[in-house]
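Deliverable D5.2: sample structural annotation.
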Amino acid sequence: LLKMGFIPESIKWFHRSIRSPQCSKRHFAFYNLALVYRSGNRPERSCRYLHLALRQRPDFDQARRLLREIRNHDVTAGRESEHS
């Protein structure tokens, strides 16, 4: 759904997956939610879901890299706006 551009539907399914007792890979659902919110220019929400993914799976390198990338972008963007 996400790759096809169905953002609201994707969000709904990721949340359902997270709530499901049968879900063995919640960290992926949290990570995918982070990707959705990052693409929607919501870095604070994206970071929240990345933290949840890392809480579920501390060795989730993709989530750690994306979190670092978002934080670095926020710091860089903050510096650029100070100089404007």
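Annotation notes: The mean pLDDT is 85. Residues 24-82 form one domain.
The annotation will be released with the project's public dataset once the embargo ends.
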